[in-house]
Amino acid sequence: MRYAYAITSALLVGGASAALVLQNPAGAQTAQNEPGAIQASSPRAGAPMSFADMVAKLQPAVVNISTTQRVQVQTNPFAGTPFGGLFGGQQGGRPVTRQAESLGSGFIISADGYVVTNNHVISAGQRGAVVESIKVTLSDRREYTAKLIGRDPESDLAVLKIEGANLPFVKFGDSNQSRVGDWVVAIGNPFGLGGSVTAGIISALHRVTGQGGPLDRFIQTDASINRGNSGGPMFDLNGNVIGINSQILSPTGGNVGIGFAIPATEAKPIIDTLMKGDKVERGYLGVGIQPLTDDLAKSFGVPKGKGELISRVEPGEAAAKAGIKQGDIIMKVDGKEVTPDTTLSYLAGALRPGSRVPIELIRDGKRMTVQITVGTRPPVEQLAGFDPDADEGAPSEEDAQQSATASLGLSVAALTPQIARSIGVDPDMKGVVVVGVDPSSDAAQKQLRRGDVIVSINRTPVATPAEVARIVSEAKQNGDGQVLLYVTRRGGVGGYFAVDLTD
């Protein structure tokens, strides 16, 4: 379960918008929540209705999702220090490979086995971990090995596929019709307790949690949501999926009556795109945004609760090309007002890349409108920047590619202009940046470190992790025991390193 303000995964060990149309010819299986299929019990006076009949109909479509992961664990607490060789332990100080598991929820959305869940439910739980398999378990204890069809880390959504027929499934509803105070029901697997049902009300709509980004917009509920509920459905009383349980706000990791679900109207276009095998693309302006506090609004002479302040403009990006400047206050995007509930990031992300839209802004007290050609939002790891002194943190989307360079003893990522500036090298430099070093590798012995930029391998320029993996694989196939790296560091200092390869 991810946490707003302090996000963690649901691991139990530490370790754009075409509608999906389901045709129902005569005799075909229907959705578990087909209109008319669910009849509510009559409530007692002054009491809520029983959810029993509804839950009995919906529960078969809600599944348990678990992953098996392989992770390297360092057995030598002194690894990477001058004492590492003295206290190597039984494994000689080298990491050992161990198994880990994760657990979450999901739900089936088609009779042939498409399953929706959160991306963090099926992702590696810590850096260096590799997801080996994903298992889906139905309420009747049938188990299936799932195939990952697509994932979108920014929205925290993923689509799986299991091989089955005539499976129970549910359909999405229109979360835009939901109102604060409406009853909702959540079904999932909190703490590994399969098929648990909780009920509550919608506490807020369009809730911004402060994480930033184009998808920071949730349904808030007081229905109990805990670890393991991630990826499970939130139903309205008609049995429609109006949200996907995703996060909780909690100082302890347990439910405190504040949970968040991704609205169905936000999730469904993304899920439709992933089901087609396409990549989700979002609009991008290329600006840094600062909330317009009351005192700033007063200083700039603008209404409170309207607009956002531009703190930075990325050179060469859409905003810079349109003439937007630092200190501008964006008031409207394509005719839609920028407010605390409808943020600039949200509005920009919803734009179609390549489209041309008007942006209304205030500069030096004067209102003006500029036309902007919307760019394409870069991957989340590029936008996050890079701190060579920071902990490695959660794994990125490129971990699968990075694992291919394990024989080099390094994990790498593409070098972007933003990362280049943060580590003190030329923003126009081409190469890959080192994001992790195996302390037991020859690369570590040669003093390669996080934040180094690999410009070439065996005198061949590299710009992506895939190119690094290819050259290293070719070297191993040729029987070469080492490769020659050209590495650049902060300030432009460069040099060659001959690095031994491991099996």
Summarize the structure.
The chain is α+β, with helices and mostly antiparallel strands and 503 residues long. It has 4 domains: 10-31 and 53-161, Beta Barrel (Thrombin, subunit H); 175-275, Trypsin-like serine proteases (Thrombin, subunit H, Beta Barrel), CATH 2.40.10; 283-376, PDZ domain (Pdz3 Domain), CATH 2.30.42; 381-389 and 396-500, PDZ domain (Pdz3 Domain), CATH 2.30.42.10. The chain contains 10 helices and 28 strands.
Give an account of the 3D structure.
This protein is α+β, with helices and mostly antiparallel strands and 503 residues long. It folds into four domains: 10-31 and 53-161, Trypsin-like serine proteases (Thrombin, subunit H), CATH 2.40.10.10; 175-275, Trypsin-like serine proteases (Thrombin, subunit H), CATH 2.40.10.10; 283-376, PDZ domain (Pdz3 Domain, Roll), CATH 2.30.42.10; 381-389 and 396-500, PDZ domain (Pdz3 Domain), CATH 2.30.42.10. Helices cover 14% and strands 32% of the residues. It contains ten helices and 28 strands. Strands 6-5-2-3-4-8-7 form a seven-stranded antiparallel sheet. Mean pLDDT is 79; it is low at 3-23 and 390-404.
